[in-house]
Specification:
21% of the residues lie in helices and 15% in strands. It has one domain. By secondary structure, it is an alpha/beta fold. Strands 2-1-3 form a 3-stranded parallel beta sheet. It contains 2 helices and 3 strands. The protein is globular, with a radius of gyration of 13 Å.
Amino acid sequence: MIPELLVLGDHAPAERRGPAIWIKCMLARTLEEADWPTTAVPIIYLPGVSRADLRHRDLST
């Protein structure tokens, strides 16, 4: 398992998965389980969200 890989989903800290607020806290390193090396760049996986969804999001709504 890649320790800096975080997955959006149901709360399961042992599997590095959780809701958006959990990911935000992990990125801020306010949770004990945010134990990856400080030189590592966190990777956030958003299941069901494609690259195109992120690139072509309508920001006017």
